[in-house]
Amino acid sequence: MAITQLTLHNFRNHPDLRIKPGSGFNIFSGDNGAGKTNILEAVSLLAPGRGLRRAVLGDMASDGGSGDFAVAAEIGDVQLGTGTNAENPQRRQTKVNGAAVPTNDLAQWLSILWLTPAMDRLFLEGATGRRNFLDRLITALEPSHARNCARYDAARRERNRLLSEEYMPDGEWLDALDIQLADFGSAVAETRARITGSLNDKLTGADDGLFAAARLDLRDQQLRSRDDLLSALSSGRTADRAAGRTLHGPHRTDLHVYHRAKVQAAEKCSTGEQKALLFSIILGQADLVEEQRGSRPILLLDEVAAHLDPARRAGLFSKLNSSGGQVWLTGTEPELFTDVPQASVHFTVQDGTVSRR
């Protein structure tokens, strides 16, 4: 599972870019603002969702362009593409081998996991970010999860619209929506619980002295079966109407993370420990994807080397190298990557241009 060619058109500060990454480590070094993270963001759009910045489509198009953008990648003889056109810049289109497909179908072709500086606050902010983080981990393993999440969210938005109306909505229409929510919501909740359990098993004993192992705790109101969720929706309809929104279901789930060895909540750990826990989760899920899908996911690691001491940095590179797979790393200084394998491919990024060193 590796990208053999990446092409960008009018994407952020890259008007036209074509690179051929290696199958292992790909290092992008350059000054802040040169466009390193933009390349990783483009790759992240080859997975379901809004990419590693969760930006709106209009922000991704080059300022000097026509308002559209395109990201294309080759994986062997398979061609993936996603982007917008100038006539409708707020609508994303996705193609596989030239045929239009739903964006969520990208997960069938590529598994992508990422770690960015913005994720350092994952444990300190709201539950939405942690749910999104968990769902990205799961989609890299089970592509159907993204479709179930999208269908559940669409049904919930329609239900919330009806609940917020001035007059009592049609009961039969609400009944039909509740059935959809129960069908898709139970699939989402069951998958989250199952994959969280599998990842916890993978993380047991994973503390190697470099990155402390995490333990995950899913807080989901124990509404995992279709019947339990349907019952909660039906009995809670009066309270939901008063609130103007749906109060029960997997959209209320939160993911709590603990330092396994210290039995301490992640939000109470030091900044360094929190970053180590994120590494632990990402690398553990990568192992799980390889074990169950038969190939290593692509890892996008943005500015991670600068925040590690030399010993942990060398240890991370050694761990990634021994695991295999395609890894994309960014950093401001080439010297941060002196310990990467000799076969690594190095790129210099400067003012939106990329050259191979």
How are the secondary structure elements laid out?
Layout: E1 5-11, E2 14-19, E3 25-29, H1 36-44, H2 57-60, E4 69-75, E5 78-85, E6 88-96, E7 99-100, E8 112-115, H3 127-141, H4 144-163, H5 171-203, E9 214-219, H6 226-235, H7 237-243, E10 254-259, E11 264-265, H8 271-293, E12 298-301, H9 310-323, E13 327-331, E14 345-350, E15 353-356
Parallel strand pairs: 3-13, 3-14, 8-12, 12-13
Antiparallel strand pairs: 1-2, 1-4, 4-5, 5-6, 6-7, 9-10, 10-11, 14-15
Give the mean pLDDT.
91
Task: Count up the domains.
Answer: 2
Strand content: 15-25%
Give the strand tally.
15
CATH topology of the largest domain: Rossmann fold
Quaternary assembly = single chain
